[in-house]
Amino acid sequence: MSEPSWSPAPARHNSVSLLLVALILAALATLGLLVPSVRAAISREAPPLTAVSMRIEPVASQKLEKCPEVTDARLSRATTAVLGTLQLNAAGVANFRALHWFRGGPADLVRITSTTPNDLDDALAAAQLDKGQVLLASRSGDLLLCGESGPYSASQAAKFYAVFEQASSSSSASSASSSPTK
Prior knowledge:
Layout: H1 9-43, E1 51-55, H2 61-65, H3 72-76, E2 80-90, E3 93-103, E4 109-113, H4 117-126, E5 133-139, E6 142-143, E7 150-151, H5 154-178
Parallel strand pairs: 1-4
Antiparallel strand pairs: 2-3, 2-5, 3-4, 5-6, 5-7
């Protein structure tokens, strides 16, 4: 009878198996260390959006046509003024993304509501606030519609800058000039 011969193959098989087990354990340990940071990254939410709310009264386009030209004095009575872009008009709320605050704010969104969703749609269309960039002005939360708010135009934007930016820089300058210097 012949003696069984031991071949090196089983030893090689054992070392490969041990190496594979070691690699799997190292991968699991690494994954275990990464899980908390991955969970934290997944659970991080975007910072909440801030919003300013305004109301728009039901309006007929004939009412808007009777408005006199907007003067600086009438525009300056606005407590909130912003350049925005209509993002979404759904469920009775029109959301405008705020691009530049002239007065009031700052917030990410301007939300405009009305008495009903149909009144909102009609009022936005009559005031031409239903698409693109718009200039919005309100007083105590009520949208000013007699020429103060409307679609973006270079002349209206210039008026907003003149009334609101000049007013803030002149008040800054007057407070700086009245402060004592050494």
